[in-house]
Amino acid sequence: MYALRYAVGTDTGQRREANEDSVHCGERLFAVADGMGGHAFGEVASSIAVAVLADVDVDADDPLTELAAATREIAVRLTDLAEENFDMRGMGTTLTALLWDGEEKRFAVCHIGDSRAYLSRGGELTQITRDHTVVQAMVDDGRMAAEQAAAHPGRSMLMRALQAGSAHDADLFFHEVQPGDRYLICSDGLSDVVAAGEIGRLLTADEDRDAVIASLIAAANGEGGPDNITCIVVDVEGA
């Protein structure tokens, strides 16, 4: 039998007046939604996303179908609000979620945008989601090196998000777990300014999840904290 243990933290950062990130943590469902920076009502969009996710049937036989339905419902609610209030047009959110499938010892992953999910296993860090950004598409096409993408000023320019009036699909897939795995879900307020190598080091620097969360947020703020910072650390325990 596997058990999940988690910690969560969020911070406004050094340059934003409000926190447009929203987070959901339950016994089996973990998610970060990042309201689109520079767009109207980003905090409304992200809070709608996690509110819809809170109603997902975590015991469903087909968790990917449940997550897909949730993303469609989020898009519908955002569109309805935008039709009622012109000022809300253009609002949107990223979403990265892990839904535990205990029977199969795996996570169902739902991802759209540039928040991220990482896995730390055996001291090695792996990004298990793919950014839906212009620069990532250029990396995938061989037009830009990954090192260049990490420092590109337009690295947060999204190609896909949950947005009013849009019909973009999320990436949906299963990820098999192993005992001792440590997962991180974070908004780009962390990953945009803290290098992957440093994130990996901080994830393994302490067994205490709350201490790890604090160190990740401090690292992002130490790099200027240009955006809101939200992190969830989930440990998989068991035999």
TrEMBL record:
InterPro entries: PP2C (IPR015655), PPM-type-like_dom_sf (IPR036457), PPM-type_phosphatase-like_dom (IPR001932). Residues 5-236 form the PPM-type phosphatase domain. PROSITE patterns: PPM_2 (PS51746). GO terms for molecular function: protein serine/threonine phosphatase activity. It holds the Pfam family PP2C_2. It comes from the Bacteria. CDD domains: PP2Cc. Transmembrane segments: none annotated. This is Serine/threonine-protein phosphatase.
